[in-house]
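sry for the spam today, last one i promise. struct tokens for design, 367 residues
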């Protein structure tokens, strides 16, 4: 039976875990069938734009990838393998992000796990962008340098650190989150961004020094602008900070952050196309191998999967402990109030059931 989610809830009606800073309404109900959350992409709630911005970004990447599939030999030409890897990491990012925002309200365990996959997607996107920029956006004077030789291994390690650090930030702290949590998140993402954007910064610095402008610089500068603007919205909670409740459904900071990342990818792809079609530097390098492209991608995916599994099991154990503690508290309160409950018609499923629903703990999800 197809079940749409009922009317959205206010902040006071949902567990604290699902709260968002300065967002007061538009929260989805918990513990409904999986398909209800997929169908919620056609209902009004405060995650709607978060889902659709990255669904549209996913469609954009698929369309651009399809166009390049017809123009370039993405499978047989080794020099196109880094491009194929980069496109795949973009697809993974937007699938994980839109999926996380679509499903995270089902239960507490699903919430944690969805965003762990989201963090893995962010790290993979950083790794894919590292491969793209160090293959197609490199200045010829950088060829064979230490940073060039270490580009892919360092990018892989930093991608894994993004998933680890963001997962720690999600599981270590409780709402209302301290600013320390943002440091865990933003420092890891900033680290891989500095690494992946370094070849482009170097070429722009050469332009400032020598005046050699290239057509792709326009798009590179715009992608950096959109990424920086996205970081501002992510870290500031603006505009809802100044008018709580006004931007709950449309216009709050995380939605604006998503739009900025969409535009970052869009301009990145525009720049890459010009780099690939205009540059001859890439063919001066040794041809990519299966191991240092597809092999490293597979290794990073597997490593991130282990990280997600580890944090998923740790959260599951934590929720089990909390559930048992609440059952014990509920049992004590239930025994104290048993006479009164019987006199007034009984207690539906006991206090512990209410506590479990109030705290969003999906006990069955841990089995």
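last one done:
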């Amino acid at each position: 039976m197809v079940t749409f989610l009922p009317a959205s809830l206010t902040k006071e009606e949902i567990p604290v875990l699902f709260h968002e800073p300065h967002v007061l309404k538009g929260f989805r109900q918990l513990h409904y069938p999986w398909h209800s959350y997929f169908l919620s992409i056609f209902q009004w709630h405060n995650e709607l734009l978060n889902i659709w911005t990255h669904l549209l970004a996913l469609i954009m990447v698929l369309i651009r990838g399809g166009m390049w599939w017809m123009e370039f030999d993405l499978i047989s030409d080794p020099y196109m393998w880094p491009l194929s890897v980069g496109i795949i990491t973009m697809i993974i990012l937007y699938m994980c992000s839109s999926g996380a925002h679509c499903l995270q309200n089902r239960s507490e365990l699903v919430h944690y796990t969805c965003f762990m996959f989201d963090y893995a997607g962010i790290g993979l996107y950083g790794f894919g962008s590292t491969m793209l920029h160090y293959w197609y956006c490199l200045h010829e004077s950088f060829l064979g340098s230490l940073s060039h030789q270490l580009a892919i291994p360092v990018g892989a390690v930093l991608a894994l650190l993004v998933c680890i650090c963001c997962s720690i930030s999600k599981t270590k702290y409780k709402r209302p989150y301290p600013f320390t949590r943002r440091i865990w998140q933003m420092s890891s993402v900033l680290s891989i961004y500095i690494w992946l954007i370094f070849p482009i910064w170097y070429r722009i610095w050469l332009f400032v020094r020598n005046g050699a402008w290239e057509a792709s610089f326009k798009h590179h500068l715009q992608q950096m602008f959109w990424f920086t603007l996205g970081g501002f919205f992510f870290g500031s909670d603006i505009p809802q900070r100044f008018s709580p409740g006004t931007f709950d459904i449309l216009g709050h900071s995380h939605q604006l952050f998503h739009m900025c990342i969409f535009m970052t990818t869009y301009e990145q792809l525009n720049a890459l196309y010009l780099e690939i079609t205009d540059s001859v530097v890439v063919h001066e390098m040794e041809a990519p191998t299966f191991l240092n492209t597809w092999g490293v991608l597979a290794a990073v995916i597997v490593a991130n999967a282990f990280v997600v599994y580890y944090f998923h099991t740790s959260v599951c154990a934590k929720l089990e402990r909390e559930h048992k503690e609440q059952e014990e508290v509920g049992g004590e309160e239930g025994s104290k109030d048993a006479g009164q409950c019987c006199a007034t018609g009984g207690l539906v499923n006991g206090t512990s059931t209410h506590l479990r629903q109030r705290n969003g703990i999906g006990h069955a999800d841990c089995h």
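Residues 338-361 have pLDDT under 50 and may be disordered. ok im logging off now
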